[in-house]
Amino acid sequence: MGTNSRIRTGQVSGLGKGPVKGPGDSNSRRSTRSSLAASTPGRPLPLKPLSPAVPVADRQPAPPPAPRIDPESSSEDIAPEIIVWTEAMDAMSLDSSDGSLTPVTDDALTPPPPTPPTLPLLDEPAPESDQEPDQELDQEPGQEPGQEPDQEPDREPDQKPDRELDRDPDQAEQKLEQHLDQRLDHDLNADRDQDQDRNPGHGRDQNLNQGRQQDLNLEPKQEHEEDHNTKQAFLSVSSLSAVSAVSDQSELSPLASPSLSSKATTPMDIDSLKDVYVPVVRLTQPADTPRRRYDVRPKVSVPPDLPLSEYAMQCITAAESSRLNPYSLHQEEYLILRDHISHAQVTTYLNIRNGTLRLWIRNPQIAVTREEAVGCAKDVRWFDVANVCFDWLVRRGYINFGCVEIRSSRKQTQKDQPVDGKRKTVVVIGAGMAGLGCARQLEALFMQYAKKFREMGEQPPRVVVLEGRNRIGGRVYSRAFTTKPGRTTDSFQGKRCTAEMGGMIITGFDRGNPLNIIVRGQLGLPYRPLRPDTTLYDYNGKPVDLERDQLVEKLYNDCLDRVSEYKFKQPTSKLIEGNRDLIDEGKDSSSETYKTIRQIEESTAAQPHAPPVSEQNIAPQVNLVPVSSDRATGRIHTVPGTPGALRAVHKAKVMGWKIKQGISDEADLDIESATKEPSATLGSVTDHVIAQYKDIIDLNEQDYRLMNWHIANLEYSNATNYSQLSLQGWDIDAGNEWEGSHTMVVGGYQSVPRGIMHIPTPLNVRQKSSISKITYAHGSQTGPATVECEDGYKIDADYVVNSIPLGVLKHGSVKFEPPLPPWKSDAIERLGFGVLNKVILVYKEPFWEDDRDIFGVLRNPSNRRSLDQKDYASQRGRFFQWFNVSKTSGLPVLLALMAGDAGYDTEQTCNDDLVTEATAILRSVFGSKVPEPVETVVTRWASDKFARGSYSSAGPNMKADDYDTMARPVGNLFFAGEHTCGTHPATVHGAYISGLRAASDVLDAMLGPIDIPTPLIIPKETSLSLKRKAAENRDPTQSRLEAYEIELWDHIIAQVGLRPIMPTKPAMNAYIFYSKTHHEDARKKLEEGRRAGKGKASANEVRVMSAKMWRDTSPEQRKPFVDQAEEQKRLYTEAMARFKEQAADWDKKATELKAAYEKEHPCVPTTEELAAAAVMLAEAAVAAAAGVDGNNRRTRKRVESYAETEASDVEMTLS
């Protein structure tokens, strides 16, 4: 390995502000992998920058450039030149018999004697808490403002309380302080070398290796000596309540009142927390047990030269880019921390968590270390909290995922290398995005928790991936064309031209898509945004009138809006928020309270007529209504609102439709009867709505063709006819969409799973291993398992991750022993799994519009003049959507979609008939000049034995929790795949997220829950003791200088007063003044035509209406508000000018006063200070003569950053 150091910077590696540097450029500021990833000119590589780059810390050495492997040596049908090869691949051998890559390494380790684990507890909902509704969260019931709560010292769980403390408060305070000081002395004097996890060289901030003598070092937590078999034991809710009481006492919190109402023990409805993993909280040692020691200092990961507000903005953006709310706890965080922190302390925790995410987002090529995460805490009391936060983020795949190299935090000593330790095996079935993502994440987790396994007497487990095909990627498959381009552009030098057979579109990089990190931040793959402009052509080849198209699209969205009223209601979830103002400013909460979140909730629940714990702190229920559809993916865009709020006639008028003669303004639609039909589906009810609208407005044949084009687009996103979609669950993933442009990877989407497989080191993948039978341990997560292949190959495993597609599970070709339980098999049966096929045509020259990426064609029903929806079902999805993919495939290529019933028809239709039909459609649009294609590729995913279809959908009989049921493990058999991700089903990123979740489940089964010390936050008294001890040893020079500085500024302020305050910037947007003035007008307009029982318009609906009214206003109507905004700007400009003048005058006077004061009252060092300085200079001279860096600093070299620009898109010219 090389020795150059790397640091985390403002953006991820890739294109910088200067020219791109290839691997041959000698730029020590860029890591080797960055240079390799960015070696293609014109490659767009940016993560959206948070701010200008700021160096934060030294990094571990980067590996040197490694030789590329000959593309011809790969048996896979994918461009090998996309892959960034590492030197670890030199140690790989290809097993020709099974196609697998086998690492040639000696990783045998012998573990030390096992350490008995502690007893894990299931963090079931515990007794609810009590608090008066108007009572301050930081104040206990009955406590006066500013009064400190009664406290009780830490003690062993079985120790009786010292009642003398209750009788004599002064003596109690004295004993408490003595007790805490003794504990702190023990911690501070502990052996620094006992902690094996630290690595002083891993900090991102340049101050990480400085000031070691000032760090707070806490000893590592020891575990109870209990039998190993108790590791899987779980306690009931009542047991947890008892343990919680012990924990409360150890945290210096008052004992709970013995007389609580029944509400105080109301269990929280864990089942209602959808998409929430219920963590297991381990019972920890008493508080007197030596704690973990950290070789870092507070704020070491917070850039000192970055304004706090800008740092806070970066942290907030990082959380939003990681699928987390920067202002509130995740459901798991709430369950983990509710026994340990107060509401006021949530703010500080969120600042630590968001700061850790910032380190990761700003450079995901380098793994965040534990020390760096702990360095986000601004107080040593929060080090353990930061440590728990780091464990949670790592385990759940929010940081340190993807193609990132995990380096050992230290060199292993001889005693850490056991000879004959047990090594468990995890078998991952399937090498698609879910399987490879899970395997890569497991490898990273096992390396980061290697010490844990050694303490258990085991080696880190090995991971084996079994794949039935002779390639990887699963349903992400970029098939190479046989046709060669006449001329290769620079963008495609060395690349193969490919057709996207399966997944092809990345639906936005922003707001949390993990593919943002992998594609742009780690692999540096080139990609190209899809232009959203779409032209629709009628069946005769004429373009559809744009106004008519938009009018029908509004009607289509309104139909979906009305059926949305019958969707599954979103489950309630806890909303534990921090102080938004403090988080926005990057400041921690200074409030101190010893009542935890649980205690507050329980005390509140004990009040008369108070809600139980499960109903407290609930996030507002938000209904999402469709407003538009995405023509590139068929996905529905939603906004908060009330479904079906307006009467049909009124809504039709608002949309711009002409109402038929004789129709009353009060006329509405009757949907209820259609929804109560036993076989009601999305399709049957929507068809019913369209038929009723036909009686209100004039709909012609073209309107029906347009309407069914949009329906075909919806069927494209679900891979099935919409009559096979659940009325309640068809849009179950609403609200989880990413943001940003839709993009396609240049050269093939399959290079993403290929990169995951090979970087940073190749995974152990055995191809051509079709699975026939899986034997697993049904009742335990620790039993043996066996996976059998059709060729007779068998492998024993301790854990099995099944990422087999849902279609194969439905087909039943893989047997399970024992059979899957009914709750799992029933969910497999209820979920849908459909087919989307493609017809891909290659031409010598393009004959279509090169400035458009998408165009659509309306299809006629069997009866051309029919106004019956049933006649359109079979034809509407045939060649309805066309993609111009020439700039991503390298050849003149058109790709047509076969959706709905047409997808199934493609399986039975020969290629020649499909090409003939496609050519006829193209000639109707572009004329007779359209030639025959030179090459054709047709997909038939339903006939693929390893897929049996395209992706999952909401079957007609699905239940609201079926996706979550599919994600639940059965014994030691775990499940991954897009069909197990309820928030992002039927997507590539959803499959990858499910792999991260499955890896987390496996690690939890191996190691148990996250260790949480008690108390989690060191009481403030301990911190005060530290300050007193620090004051005793304080540098006299520093104290003298600080006192002199205070005297100096007191003198200046006494003479000229305080510095002028900068004026607050007022609102200067004309729309803001308009919306305030017309707020009630917008509300009244919404009330017009509102259906009975729909309640008042929500705030969001009022905002949307205000914006619409603003857009519709004339320039004359806008003028008063524009003038008002201009007046505000003028007043602000004048105020700023006065401020600058006054501030300059004040600064001038202050400078003069400062110089005069320093001249009259010089700050002279004492004799003791001069002597100490002479000693330090002598020591520095000796160190310099010996060639030692006195500050123990390494040379810091920055990683070159990059930023996305409009010119970063890869452009090419076809020959």
From TrEMBL:
Residues 1064-1140 bind DNA. GO terms for biological process: chromatin remodeling; regulation of gene expression. Residues 315-410 form the SWIRM domain. Residues 1-212, 1186-1215 are annotated as: Disordered. Residues 1-12 have a biased composition (Polar residues). Belongs to the flavin monoamine oxidase family. This is Flavin-containing amine oxidoreductase-domain containing protein. The lineage of its organism: Eukaryota, Fungi, Dikarya, Ascomycota, Pezizomycotina.
